[in-house]
Amino acid sequence: MKATVMYGARDVRVENVPDAQLVEATDALVIVTRACICGSDLWPYNAMVPSEVGNRMGHEFIGLVEAVGAQVRTIKKGDLVIAPFAWSDGTCEFCLQGLQTSCVHGGWWGGTMLDGGQGEAVRVPQADGTLVPLRVSPDDALMPSLLTLTDVMGTGHHAALSAKVGPGKITAVVGDGAVGLCGVIAARRLGAERIIILGRHPARIALAREFGATDVVSERGAAAIGRVLDITSGRGVHCVLECVGHAEAMLTALSIARPGGAVGRVGVPQQDTIPNGQGSFFANVTIAGGPAPVRAYMNELLPEVLEGRIQPGKVFDRITRIEGVPDGYRAMNAREAIKVMIRF
Ligand SMILES: [Zn+2]
After folding, report:
1. Mean pLDDT across the chain, nearest whole number?
2. What is the pLDDT of residue 270?
3. Are strands 121-124 and 28-36 parallel, antiparallel or unpaired?
4. How far is the CA of 224 from the centre of ligand 1 (A)?
5. Residue 129 C-alpha to ligand 1 middle, in angstroms?
6. What residues pair up with 239 in beta bridges, in sequence order?
7. For residue 30, what pLDDT is reported?
8. What 8-state DSSP symbol labels residue 142?
9. Burial class (CB in 10 A: 0-12, 13-18, 19+), 271
10. Ligand 1 centroid to 103 CA: how many Å?
11. Given this model, what pLDDT does residue 101 score?
12. Span from the CA of 290 to the centroid of ligand 1 (angstroms)
């Protein structure tokens, strides 16, 4: 089968690899129908140390179940299923509390040991806990929005929950990538009174406004912080969704939160220290967030998509076949595309 393998920075290849197959009795074999490239795939795209064996890529996919292991109970051959960006058993203490990204029997797609979503098929461990059947056709018009539930929409929702978004709250979203844009959807859905998007790319800003952003701050760094403080009478915002991950974004997020406010961080941190430690300490700012348990959020967000109340699939502005995946990485990295969908 064909799959995407990254061998180093800017070195993404589509290659023939061994066919995915069942290994454990709790596995399912899924033939991928849709997948996509994530903003987080761009971190290794820019910085991966060269590797001889390479890393299989992709953690966002929908597909058809081809076979299941002997112990799989709820998933069956022929089901169209959606997979969250981490796999999980659904039964351990962390899964039961809705934190499937900390599953004691769970893990992450791709790398050197497992199939990734950017390939023709995937061995899915812990199929009963991981996969959610979809009662629509593989070519349904809702497929782009459903695909966002594998990661970016659930991650934006996690940022909003971690930032304690609710009715009447003034909310800022740092980052205008797909996660930030989905964060705008989530903040609006949770009742934020005002939503300030921090970003500068015209197409992304236009989409943010369509999703519910009320204010745009296109400055960066200290100027951005100053603008947000101006907008909020010098107080800062109640809620900040940090959807980037590098130090400048985190510094901005912590500097625009008002006393008693909260920052929900979902951008993968690219450093080990948190900036503005003293300022955020003396302002009693809550810092929360992490890898989103999107498996838990599917229950809540799936009806929202199926019934047309949210349309996060609009973040996809380019579609490719698997042969075009390397150029998809290039286009997202060059900010020519917000998010690239792969059709099989
Ligand atoms: Zn678990």
Report:
1. 97
2. 84
3. antiparallel
4. 40
5. 8
6. 171, 262
7. 98
8. T
9. exposed
10. 4
11. 97
12. 17
Tens digit of each residue's pLDDT (9 = 90 or more) over 8-40: 999 999 999 999 999 999 999 999 999 999 999
3-class DSSP assignment, residue 273 = coil
Global confidence as pTM: 0.96
| pLDDT per residue as tens digits for the range 294-337 | 999 999 999 999 999 999 999 999 999 999 999 999 999 999 99
Question: Rg of the chain over CA atoms, in angstroms?
Answer: 20
| Cα 104 to ligand 1 centroid, rounded to whole Å | 5
Question: Which residues, at least 6 apart from 8, have a Cβ–Cβ distance to it below 8 Å?
Answer: 48, 49, 50, 51
User: How many angstroms does the Cα of residue 24 sit away from the middle of ligand 1?
Assistant: 16
Residue of 279, 253, 257 whose CA lies nearest to 266: 253
Rounded to 10 degrees, what is the CA torsion of 218, 219, 225, 226? -110
Q: Which of 197, 184, 185, 191 is nearest to 169 (CA)?
A: 191
Instruction: Give the distance (Å) from ligand 1 centre to CA of residue 23.
Output: 19
Ligand 1 centroid to residue 27 C-alpha, Å: 15
Q: How far is the CA of 89 from the centre of ligand 1 (A)?
A: 4
Torsion region of 233: left, alpha or beta (phi above 0 gives left; psi -120 to 50 gives alpha):
left
Q: What is the 90 CA–ligand 1 centroid distance (Å)?
A: 5
> How far, in Å, is the centroid of ligand 1 from the Cα of 107?
10
Q: How far apart are CA 291 and CA 286, in angstroms?
A: 17
Instruction: Output the CA 127–ligand 1 centroid distance in Å.
Output: 12
**Residue 286: how many other CB atoms lie within 10 Å:** 16
In this prediction, residue 271 has a pLDDT band, given cuts at 50, 70 and 90, of confident
Bridge partners of 341, per DSSP, are 36, 319
For residue 151 the two structure tokens come to: 């990661």
Give me 342's structure tokens.
């792969």
Question: Tokens 């059709």 belong to which residue?
Answer: 343
pLDDT tens digits for range 137-193:
999 999 999 999 999 999 999 999 999 999 999 999 999 999 999 999 999 999 999
